[in-house]
Structures are given as structure tokens and as C-alpha cells.
Design goal:
The protein is mainly α. It folds into 2 domains: about 350 residues, no CATH class; about 110 residues, no CATH class. The chain has 28 helices and 5 strands. It has a 5-stranded mixed β-sheet, with helices on one face. Helix 22 links the parallel strand 1 and strand 2. The longest helix has about 40 residues. About 35% of the residues are buried.
């Protein structure tokens, strides 16, 4: 007891600061999940993965894939295996809680390192606040869960233990970085190489860092060319996350391009290389924010600039322009390095007034963060997910009580197709699909809103709800302004038609091995697999038929409008006023007329 009280007394400032930011982080991440602002593509996908890992089985994901693709054939995210037992305690909040704890853990690593090199408690506390309040951390916590956040938080501890020459714990920390995600394996090599430049004279550190650099580069090559593809059923599968067409089609072409065309490479790094209008100004905003938050000090700390090269490269060369900016998890690896570089620089300046400069830096960092929470590029950025100090953040257009009441009615073993923001709450099951992929689901659950229909258009969304409502194959359990829940009437399925499709599938000799693979990965009999695929194909064909009928009706209405001079002149007037092509306006008018009469 005395030890515990002594520990609190000795570290009370660190504990208070960490607690305050813990509350802020929880108010961002956990509130978003509670208010149905998390998504299928990230948290939903990984929630299903840790659910399977917690049951000691591989995850063949059905959220983003069709249940035949091992999650490790997409990303080498091994830390999920280790943390999966926590699922039994925290359920759908597990990964969000682990993510928050990891950021707090990373901040303490920054504090410990700065205190080690400066022996200045106040400077170390300022470094802690700087890290906790930097834009990269707040943005990352606002958008679901990402494994690279966990990996990045072990880097300050690696630097700390390396400085203390504690190679065992340094190795444990860098192993955690490597295990978090495959791109961080490459980063580990650059971390080691950058730190080698300032530790070269120390023989033990020199050999350790050279070995780590070589191991990381080799293991990265092995991961993307051998290990990740080995988890795939499909032969000759290549790594699917190289989206840097400005450099080439693969990592080898990118390396050649960088050395062969250095000027073009530099232009692509600093300038907008996207044709999308939304990309204008995104890089400029990032560079200004990066430099003002402390990145400018990297000019005096080149070892850390080398450390950040692969992170800046994967960010700024990307074909996906939102990754260039300040949002989501795409800047999280920068956060600990900026804070460490900046306060290491301060620690080396032997002046009494250095604390004033450090305080100014923290104030600037926090101020920039608030400014960029309020407004940032791209222009469609929605700040509600990270605006933790505003009442709007804690409100939601969804009736949480009503939605949860009906979600709880769905059996835990049922196969479910759910709206994107409901998937993370329902992912603890073998089959969970993101609507409109219904496949062979037992239930379809939606939370309709006039301004949200992703990934469908508003028209398609409403039309499909009408189709499900009218269909005898689906029983409507509830249909109100807050939630819609359908249950499949298996007894009313057209068994004859499904049997015909099933027979078609059984005759496809070239797919027999694939169906056997499905049976193995999904722990089903081959007959169950054929039936599930037949039902899925039946639903797809039915939807295609409905789409064709809808397009035919729209075409007829467009012809009617064109044949009526009064209607046509009215449409032309609207097209001119809104600066919209006439054909587009004609289609909109036909759709409006169709929906009005339905």
C-alpha cells in the first residue's frame, strides 16, 4: 500500500495529465462507437477477426470479403492475435479501448525518454502534453481502429530502451512494431538506420542497429512477397495494397523510379499529383501543420527525418489523396517522432529560458490541433467525430435505445446483413455482411436516414427497402423511422429455382476445389456451401432483374418527357439554371416522377 501511494505521489503530474487525455480520448473514440459512428470497413472487420481469434480459429472475413479470404492474406496484423482474449471482457469496444491505452502508453514512453536525456521533469511533462495534443493522435482516434496506431506507440519505448542499452526490452518493443502491420516492418528498418547515424561510435549499438536494419528490410520483403500471399487460397496472389502509381506498379518499380527520376519523385512528393479537384491544397495544409507542430526541427535532427521517410513516402505518394492530409490514422506514426525530435532538441539547448520556448511549442501545437479540428481539407471532411468539446459530438440522429432493443433481438448465431455503422456492433458472429450484400443472411437490419444511404444512392436505398418489404421471402419485424429489421422466411424461398442454381454450381468442375476450400474455412459441409452459394446467386440475379426493370421504366419516362414539349422545356430550364447536362437532368426528372407515383 505504501509503495502504491509513494508511486502516485512521485508521478502525480504524469498521472493527472494522462488521466485528462484519457478522458478526452474516450470521449472521442468510445462516444463515436456508442453513437453509431464507427464503420464496417475498419472496426467491423477487425471485430469479427478478434472474435474468431478469441475462439482459437483463423478469421475468414465476411465483412469486407466473402468468407474465403484469411484476414492475414490482406494485412499481417499479428498483434490482434495477442489481444483477442480481451474480447471476452470488452466485446465490440475491445479494440477501441486497447487503442486508447496504447496511445497513453506511447505518451509515457515519450515522457520517459525526454526525462532520461534531459533530467528535467518540467520539460518532460511538456513533451507528454505535446504528444497527447498533436493533431495526428486526435485524428487517428476519431476514425475507428487501426493496427499501425498500436505499433507506433512502441517506438518511443524502443528509443528509450536503446538509449539505456537495454537490448532485451528494446527488442521486445521493436518486435511489437513489426508485428502490428506489414508496412511498419519497413519502418522498423528505417528507425534502426536513422538511429544508427547517431549511435555509430557505440560498437554494441552499431552492430545491433545494423542487424535490425537488415533483418527488417529482409522480413518486409518476405512478408509482402511470401508470408501474406501464403495465407491466400488463390495461387500467385500478389500484395494488394501498393497504390502508388506515380512511382510504378510495385515496390521494385518504385525503387527504380526514385533513383532514376529523382526530380519527378520530388515533384510527386511535394506537389498535387491527383486529377481530383478535392486534392487541391491538401498537401500544402499538411506541410504547414507538420512544420508548425514541431516538424521544422527535423532539419536539425536528420536522424529522425530518415526515420520518417517511409511514413512520409507512403502518405504523400499515395494515389488516395485524402491520405495526404491530416485526417484518420494516416499521420499517427509522425506524432511520437515529432515530439521526441522537438524535445530532444530543447533538451540539448543549455539555456534557462528553454522552458518558455517549450511551452510556446506546446501551445502552438494544441492551437493548431483545435483550428484543424474545426476546419481542414478535403472540404467534405466532417469534424463531428473529433470535435470532443462540442455538444454536437455527443448527440446523434439515431435513436440508440430503439436500435439496441432490436439488435438484441437478433440471435447471436444468426447470419446478418447490416448497415455499415451497425456492423461493428454485430460482428461477433461467423457471418456478418455489410448491406447491401445480403448473400444468405437470416436477417437484414438498417437504421434509415434521409442523408445517409452509403454505399447506395438514396434512390437505390429506398427502392431496395421497398423490395424487401414487399417480398414474401422476408418478414418485416419492425419498420419505423429509427430501425428496420427483416427476417428471412426460409420456408417461402423458391426451392425449385434454388435447386436449379445449386445444380448449376455443382456442374462447375473448375470451382470444386474452391467450394471445398469454402467448406473448410467456414466449417460447413460441402452441401451447406453449395446451398449458401445458390441462395446468394439467387438474390444477385433477382436484384439484377429488378435493376433492369427499373432502368427500363426510367428509359420509358425519359421518352415521355422528350415527347411533351412543355415538360421538356421545363427540364431544359432546370438544367440551364443548375448548369447540369440535359441528359442528367432528364434522368433525374424521370426518377423523381417514378418515385412520386410509387
Amino acid at each position: 500500500m505504501n509503495f502504491f501511494l509513494e508511486f502516485i505521489s512521485k508521478n502525480k503530474n504524469v498521472i493527472i495529465i494522462t488521466f485528462i487525455f484519457c478522458m478526452i480520448y474516450c470521449s472521442i473514440s468510445l462516444v463515436n462507437h456508442y453513437n453509431f459512428r464507427t464503420n464496417a470497413g475498419d472496426l467491423g472487420t477487425y471485430n469479427q477477426a478478434i472474435y474468431d481469434y478469441a475462439h482459437f480459429r483463423a478469421n475468414y472475413n465476411t465483412v469486407c470479403f466473402d468468407g474465403t479470404k484469411n484476414m492475414l492474406s490482406d494485412h499481417l496484423t499479428l498483434l490482434q492475435l495477442i489481444m483477442s482474449p480481451l474480447f471476452w471482457l470488452f466485446k465490440s469496444y475491445t479494440l477501441l479501448i486497447v487503442q486508447i491505452v496504447s496511445v497513453l502508453f506511447g505518451g509515457i514512453g515519450v515522457y520517459k525518454y525526454i526525462k532520461l536525456i534531459s533530467r528535467n521533469e518540467k520539460l518532460s511533462l511538456l513533451a507528454l502534453v505535446h504528444f497527447y495534443s498533436i493533431w495526428g493522435v486526435i485524428s487517428a482516434l476519431g476514425w475507428d481502429y487501426h493496427d499501425n496506431i498500436l505499433g507506433a506507440m512502441f517506438v518511443p519505448w524502443f528509443i528509450y530502451f536503446l538509449r539505456k542499452e537495454n537490448y532485451l526490452w528494446a527488442s521486445v518493443c521493436i518486435a511489437a512494431v513489426i508485428m502490428s502491420k506489414e508496412n511498419l516492418i519497413l519502418w522498423a528498418g528505417f528507425i534502426a538506420f536513422g538511429l544508427l547515424l547517431v549511435n555509430f561510435k557505440n560498437k554494441t549499438k552499431r552492430y545491433y542497429l545494423i542487424g535490425l536494419t537488415l533483418f527488417s528490410f529482409f522480413f518486409f520483403f518476405l512478408a509482402i512477397n511470401v508470408i501474406i500471399p501464403s495465407f491466400s487460397y488463390f495461387p500467385n496472389m500478389k500484395y494488394g495494397h501498393f497504390a502508388y502509381s506515380t512511382l510504378g506498379d510495385n515496390a521494385y518499380e518504385a525503387i527504380v523510379h526514385i533513383f532514376k527520376h529523382p526530380i519527378k519523385t520530388a515533384e510527386a512528393f511535394f506537389l498535387n499529383h491527383s486529377t481530383n479537384q478535392g486534392a487541391i491544397g491538401v498537401k500544402n495544409e499538411f506541410f504547414i501543420t507538420f512544420l508548425l507542430s514541431g516538424g521544422v526541427v527535423l532539419l536539425r535532427k536528420p536522424q529522425y527525418l530518415i526515420v520518417l521517410l517511409p511514413i512520409l513516402g507512403q502518405k504523400l505518394f499515395s494515389d488516395i489523396y485524402p491520405q495526404w492530409g491530416l485526417s484518420s490514422q494516416y499521420s499517427i506514426e509522425l506524432a511520437p517522432i515529432i515530439s521526441i525530435a522537438l524535445f530532444e532538441f530543447f533538451a540539448q539547448i543549455k539555456r534557462k529560458k528553454i522552458l518558455i520556448l517549450a511551452i510556446i511549442s506546446v501551445v502552438i501545437c494544441g492551437t493548431i490541433n483545435i483550428i484543424k479540428i474545426e476546419k481542414r481539407l478535403p472540404n467534405w471532411f466532417n469534424n463531428i467525430q473529433i470535435r470532443f468539446y462540442a455538444m454536437e459530438h455527443y448527440k446523434t440522429p439515431y435513436n440508440k435505445k430503439e436500435i439496441r432493443k432490436w439488435l438484441n433481438q437478433i440471435p447471436s448465431e444468426a447470419k446478418v446483413s447490416a448497415e455499415f455503422n451497425l456492423v461493428p456492433h454485430l460482428a461477433a458472429r461467423q457471418y456478418i455482411f455489410e448491406y447491401p450484400r445480403v448473400y444468405h443472411a437470416d436477417y437484414v437490419v438498417l437504421c434509415p436516414r434521409d442523408d445517409v444511404s452509403y454505399p447506395l444512392t438514396t434512390k437505390e436505398y429506398k427502392l431496395r427497402i421497398k423490395e424487401l418489404t414487399k417480398s414474401k421471402e422476408w418478414e418485416t419485424l419492425v419498420n419505423n423511422k429509427d430501425v428496420i429489421l427483416f427476417k428471412r422466411n426460409w420456408d417461402l424461398l423458391p426451392e425449385g429455382e434454388i435447386k436449379i442454381i445449386e445444380t448449376e454450381l455443382r456442374k462447375q468442375i473448375n470451382k470444386v476445389d474452391f467450394f471445398k476450400h469454402q467448406a473448410k474455412t467456414q466449417r460447413k459441409t460441402i452441401d451447406e456451401i453449395y446451398r449458401n452459394n445458390a441462395i446468394t446467386l439467387y438474390d444477385k440475379r433477382k436484384q439484377q432483374k429488378n435493376n433492369v426493370e427499373e432502368e427500363t421504366e426510367i428509359s420509358k419516362l425519359i421518352k415521355q418527357i422528350k415527347s411533351n414539349k412543355k415538360w421538356l422545356d421545363e427540364v431544359k430550364r432546370h438544367a440551364t439554371e443548375r448548369k447540369i447536362p440535359l441528359e442528367t437532368m432528364l434522368k433525374r426528372a424521370a426518377i423523381f416522377h417514378s418515385q412520386k407515383h410509387k
